[in-house]
Specification:
By secondary structure, the chain is of the alpha/beta class. It is built from two helices and five strands. The chain has one domain. The strands form two sheets. Strands 3-4-5 form a three-stranded parallel beta sheet, with no helix packed on it. A two-stranded antiparallel sheet has the order 1-2.
Length: about 90
């Protein structure tokens, strides 16, 4: 299992390895689901995503609906409202 450490003042114990969702910017939903399932399998519990990461937010949203309790989702702010703000919570 991957080591976990406190993430700032959030109280969340994040894995020291996190997933940069920019890797999903051009993925199909099926590809994204496979990648996200691997994160769950290997114990990675921290996902970094931003609106500028292409379709990453859209690929994560349906999966997070089933696994929200398993992950800390770090959404980087932008000048516009994130597409994930209503679907990933």
């Amino acid at each position: 299992m991957i080591e976990k450490r406190p993430f700032g003042r959030t109280g969340h114990l994040s894995t020291v390895t996190l997933f940069g969702a920019a890797a999903l910017s051009r993925a199909t939903q099926a590809e994204a689901d496979r990648v996200l399932d691997l994160l769950l399998e290997y114990g990675v519990n921290h996902i970094d995503v931003a609106a500028r990461y292409g379709d990453a937010e859209l690929r994560i949203a349906p999966w997070m609906a089933r696994h929200r309790q398993d992950f800390f989702l770090a959404i980087w702010p932008t000048t516009s409202v994130s597409r994930c703000s209503t679907t990933c919570n």
